[in-house]
Design a protein that fits this description.
With 280 residues, this protein is an alpha+beta fold. The protein is 32% helix and 14% strand. The chain contains 9 helices and 6 strands; from the N terminus they run αααααβαααβββαββ. It has a 4-stranded mixed β-sheet, covered by helices on one side. A two-stranded antiparallel ribbon has the order 3-4. Strand 3 (194-195) and strand 4 form a beta hairpin. 19% of the residues are buried.
């Protein structure tokens, strides 16, 4: 129901043909970003599917009803042409550039030997917020392309509405990350405020992580950067229930292992949403 027959055929071929080799992994990652996107008939397609948010997959039942209600038709595109165009837009670095290193693991596990012997100067990450989203469920289309079951993925991830369980998870994560950051380095955690659905009460989750998890583990607080997000710039504005209100404020908790570096953050200029930034 999401793709034109020819598009689905090409996706099925790529699903079976792309291997675990470096280049194929890159192509698959690029393709996952094209699996679905907003689409208006008569306009150039930005993705491969019927119109759907490009950031998360709406539920199959909802999509089926939405297609019937609005008479949606999937775009007739060539997957290989779309993939090539996307790669060209990335302006990849030349072959003589130094390669980085990447890996995937549970953040609570010990860091790889390479990182423990040569720690990072900066680690910037966004742990899951408190009971906001099920990442497997809302990425079921991409997970289908990867041959993964969304329920299995969610079962391996931490998603809880309990503050105590969340803090315990963050304690484990922060303990492991101590070996990943240099003594003169920084750990930045993007953690949004959480809004209680029943009462509307908001929790400054970044502050809770600092007080209940990081402070007793030897981390030093540099500061918290606050960014209040205009609802019109948020992906969740399209949700029917409390559109754009799931997380009103994002905060970046900046930590360091060195007490000497735990100085107050300099004053930061507030983000200006208009006019849009032009990148050279």
């Amino acid at each position: 129901m999401l793709y034109a027959p020819e598009v689905l055929g090409q996706l099925l071929w790529l699903r079976g043909a792309l291997s675990d080799q470096r280049t194929d992994r890159f192509l698959m990652a690029t393709l996952l970003g094209l699996m679905h996107a907003n689409y208006k008939p008569g306009s150039p397609a930005r993705g491969l599917s019927i119109s759907m948010p490009n950031t998360f997959s709406m539920s199959p039942a909802y999509v089926r009803g939405y297609i019937e209600e609005h008479g949606l038709e999937p775009p007739q595109v060539d997957v290989f042409d779309m993939l090539e165009a996307k790669v060209m837009r990335m302006h990849l670095p030349p072959k003589d550039c130094a390669r980085g290193v990447a890996w995937r693991q549970d953040v609570r596990e010990p860091v790889p030997p390479k990182l423990s012997t040569d720690p990072a100067k900066l680690v910037f990450t966004s742990p899951p917020y408190l009971g906001v989203i099920s990442y497997g469920k809302y990425n079921w289309v991409r997970l289908w392309m990867l041959g993964q079951n969304p329920k299995d993925v969610d079962s391996r991830l931490v998603s809880t509405g309990s503050l105590n369980r969340y803090i315990a998870f963050m304690q484990d994560a922060l303990t492991s990350l101590q070996a990943a950051v240099r003594d003169d380095g920084y750990l930045c955690l993007m953690i949004g405020d959480v809004r209680e659905r029943g009462t509307g009460e908001e929790t400054n989750l970044a502050e809770e992580v600092w007080q209940q998890a990081a402070a007793d583990l030897g981390w030093h607080r540099v500061g918290i950067v606050t960014d209040r997000l205009p609802a019109e710039h948020k992906v969740s504005r399209i949700w029917k229930n409390t559109p754009g209100k799931a997380t009103k404020t994002d905060r970046i908790l900046v930590l360091t292992r060195s007490k000497a570096r735990s100085k107050q953050l300099p004053s930061l200029e507030r983000i200006r949403w208009t006019p849009p930034t032009a990148w050279a």
